[in-house]
Amino acid sequence: MLGIDYSTVIDPFLRGVRRFIPEFGGIKPGERVLDVCSGSGAQVGEYRRRGILGFGLDLSPDMLRLSRRLYDPDQAGYFTGADARHLPFADASFDYTSITLALHDKPAQTRLEILAEMKRIVKPQSYILIADYSYPLPASFPGQIIRFIERIAGGEHYRNFRHFLKNGGVPALLEELGIKAENTQSTSYGLITVTKAKVS
Predict the structure, then answer these.
(1) How many whole angstroms separate alpha carbon 127 and alpha carbon 181?
(2) Contact predicate 122/94, CB 8 Å
């Protein structure tokens, strides 16, 4: 988006969220987690720092090169290039899946397909962790800044952002897929909500 260098601009903003997600999720060292639409790989790096078996998946070759350089310099295979709508993993092969700020900019059907795949690859009675814009997004000054950033992103990105908020955000997506949110917590001035959803 906008040619932004994620590792120097976006990741510092999300550092607190990255740290919060494994704590909020209750992820233990040794558990397997797939971070979907992993971008720069920062969430995988946070998992690995804690002894969690974190893996990332992204469709962008540029993001994969960046994430491998930053968080997998030994080429251990932590990152996979694939479409999040068709995760190349067997059913029930992870203890958790996570996704951060990567649903609001997608078309409506794509959001559902991604979450359905995240649900498919986690073990029964395990969890999906979602961090995305809060619904409703606060009308505060920080909230207006987010709206401005999304507006200047333009095109399909902005249309998808508006649709995401207009149609109920993450809670509506989970309801449509029959996934129960066990716990939620807002962070970053109320702009981002982290949701822990249990897969039955």
Answers:
(1) 9
(2) yes
pLDDT, average across residues 16-31: 97
In angstroms, rounded to a whole number, what is the distance separating the alpha carbons of residues 89 and 38? 16
8 has pLDDT over 90: no
List of long-range contacts for 57-63, beta carbons under 8 Å, 24+ apart: 57/81, 57/82, 57/84, 57/87, 59/83, 59/84, 63/6, 63/38, 63/39
If we measure between CA atoms, which residue out of 171, 183, 177, 184 comes closest to residue 200? Answer: 177
Q: Which two tokens stand for residue 32?
A: 């397997």
Q: How would you label 38-53 residue by residue, b for 16+ Cβ within 10 Å and e otherwise?
A: bbbbbbbbbbbeeebb
Phi, psi of 111 (to 5 degrees): -55, -45
Which tokens hold the place of 139? 């009308």
Let me know: does 179 contact 115? Beta carbons within 8 Å: yes
Which amino acid is it at 69?
R
Instruction: Using the CB atoms, write b or e for 134-158: b if 16+ within 10 Å.
Output: bbebeeeeebeebbeebeebeeebb
Query: Mean pLDDT across the stretch 140-153?
Result: 93
Rounded CA separation 173/171 (Å): 5
